[in-house]
Write a structure and sequence with these properties.
Largest sheet: 9 strands, mixed
CATH superfamily: Metal-dependent hydrolases
Oligomer: single chain
Structural class: alpha/beta
Radius of gyration: 23 Å
Number of helices: 19
Helix content: 25-40%
Number of strands: 27
Distance between the termini: 37 Å
Shape: globular
Length: 584
């Protein structure tokens, strides 16, 4: 049960409140940050002495694959993955296993040990939302939510093709409420539908089979719907031609489509106190930029195209990205982009799983290993770090590995240390294939991010981007009492001593969730309640009724009845709806 807690004398990094390493005390009462505690409360409070340590808000991962059918397929098709990492049962915690795709209990403990308290599942197929919520509910400690995959949805493509934006918006609003999801995910727009027929789309203006709608029309339509509804977050875009040499060009052109779309975040929430404006100011959130940034024409002449896209983003204010870094080693590639996974299968011959989710989307899963000796893999490592270092404004970037695609989230400490330590990058460069240096810009970058920058990339900006900064990503009064304490003294920080940084980031000294200490030096010590967030989006009743007439008519093509389609709240852990467009 959350009581009172005082975190004393730490060096605080809270970018949403423009606090950059000031020695401060943080007070929490009943799970929320408060300005101060009374003398009586201080006598009974839990006390953390953070003297000489770094204090940040709890980590927020806005893009990870941690729950749902494709994640579970990754677990089941990789028994070898579970032999490599095992967690014993304790009096408090469950047992668990899995390295790249850990079991639900283990992934919750692993995130908390590193200082993370909030994680969002990046791709929820509507038909599989119940399964996704069951796994999120069983994941301990983490507040969670999920993005609904809509870029190849039959109903939505029909409405967009016919130009019926009102019904399209009503459909999106109904789907969010129906499946208890949070934001719009768009994967390989118009292309995944073609994959059901063994094809893809290769340009923004190529129409797909049957629906005769283009990726450009899907991106434009979903972006406009997103703002019409006042959604918490931008459209989360996985661009076309991902992972192909030359794909950087279509990625940059895709980012131009939402330019000029006016953002409108319309949430009825209680906002924490911050110095920065918490309202959303981006119209598109591009996912895993690294995988969308290959230049060249073949794998023989491929090179990094990150700089070209970074130059565009540096001069625009409507784009935010996450990096999709590849920290070498084992990974499990899983995505709603079925054609992309099949291409990897033809390249590697690895075992491969492919699924078509009826009238909604598809996915694929494939085990993968990133090797320093491999020229393309070494280039990808460099490109992932370029995504975070070439974009000048850290408020346009979010650090991820697209876990487990680029590598498991447990590799975040390595990524954090690479972007903070040029010495660590040089050491890794010396072990890589020469392509990492020859075909990227990374070797010429001497930028080292600060702890303040890191707090932006891993806390403040993920929360602000997805509309959770009203309670996450800051230590302002009214924010959730989620805090990470790292055993790093900013006054003695030596970027050349990267081993010390790695140790500190791998196991936070303390992780506090909702005002309770949940991990101490990587050991789980309590299991407080968690929440599941979703968007309850409001539209005019007549519009919804008209739309549902269409949906019920078309629903005869599904393999289940309409009444069994929705996800009841009982599938969610402590369901917490965000009221969107509620004045309707």
């Amino acid at each position: 049960m959350a009581g009172t807690i005082a975190i004393k004398n730490g060096y605080v990094f809270d970018p949403l409140n423009e606090i950059n390493g000031e020695i401060m005390d943080i007070f929490i009462r009943d799970g929320k940050v408060v300005k101060e505690l009374s003398a009586a409360e201080m006598k009974t409070s839990k006390l953390i002495d953070a003297s000489g340590m770094t204090v940040m808000p709890g980590g927020v991962d806005s893009h990870s694959h941690v729950a749902g059918a494709k994640v579970n397929a990754g677990r089941s098709m990789r028994p070898e993955d579970h032999y490599k990492a095992n967690l014993k049962k304790t009096a408090l915690t469950h047992s668990g296993s899995g390295y790249t795709v850990p079991s639900v209990y283990k992934q919750g403990y692993d995130y908390a040990a590193m200082g993370y308290t909030t994680v969002f599942e990046a791709a929820v197929p509507p038909l599989e939302a119940r399964h996704t919520h069951e796994e999120m509910r069983s994941t301990p400690l983490l507040d969670m939510g999920g993005y609904l995959v809509l870029g190849n949805n039959f109903f939505l493509m029909r409405y967009l093709r016919d130009g019926d934006m009102e019904k399209a918006a009503a459909y999106v609003a109904w789907m969010m409420k129906t499946h208890k999801t949070y934001g719009i995910k768009c994967v390989n727009p118009a292309g995944v539908e073609n994959w059901a027929w063994g094809k893809n789309v290769s340009t923004l203006d190529e129409t797909n089979i049957h629906f005769e709608i283009t990726p450009r029309e899907v991106i434009k339509g979903l972006t406009e719907i997103n703002e019409t509804l006042g959604m918490p977050m931008p459209v989360h875009l996985h661009a076309n031609n991902l992972g192909h040499p030359g794909c950087y060009a279509i990625t940059k052109d895709s980012l131009k489509i939402p330019d000029g779309v006016k953002t409108k975040q319309n949430m009825a929430v209680e906002w924490a106190e911050t110095k920065m404006d918490l309202s959303r100011d981006r119209s598109v959130y591009l996912t895993h930029l690294m995988f969308n940034s290959f230049a060249g024409t073949t794998w023989g002449d491929c090179e990094s195209g990150v700089k070209d896209i970074a130059d565009y983003i540096n001069n625009k204010d409507h784009v935010v990205i996450d990096s999709g870094c590849t920290p070498f080693g084992e990974a499990t590639v899983m995505t709603g982009d079925g054609p992309a996974i099949h291409d990897l299968y033809t390249l590697t011959g690895n075992k491969w799983s492919n699924t078509d989710v009826e009238m909604e989307c598809g996915s694929g899963v494939l085990p993968f290993t990133y090797l320093k000796s491999n020229p393309v893999h070494s280039l990808q490592w460099a490109m992932g770090l370029e995504c975070l270092l070439l974009i000048k404004d850290p408020w346009k970037t979010i650090m991820t590995t697209d876990s487990p695609n680029g590598g498991p989230f447990t590799k975040y400490p390595e990524v954090m240390t690479w972007i903070m330590s040029e010495a660590f990058r040089k050491q890794t460069f010396s072990e890589c294939h020469k392509w990492a240096n020859d075909r990227s810009e990374l070797g010429g970058i001497n930028r080292e991010l600060s702890l303040y920058d890191l707090a932006i990339l891993t806390r403040a900006n993920p929360a602000k981007t997805i509309g959770m900064a009203h309670r996450k990503g800051s230590l302002g009064v009214g924010a959730d009492g989620d805090v990470t304490v790292y055993n790093i003294n900013p006054q003695q920080l030596d970027a050349n001593n990267y081993e010390a940084l790695l140790r500190a980031f791998r196991k936070a000294e303390y992780t506090v969730k909702g005002g309770e200490i949940v991990a101490v030096k990587g050991e789980i010590v309590s299991l407080p309640e968690k929440r599941t967030y979703y968007s309850e989006v409001h539209v005019e009743n007549e519009r919804e009724k008209e739309m549902l007439v269409d949906v019920k008519e078309w629903f005869r093509y599904y393999t289940l009845g309409f009444a069994n389609y929705p996800t009841p709240e009982k599938y969610l852990a402590n369901p917490t709806p965000i009221q969107v467009n509620s004045e309707r």
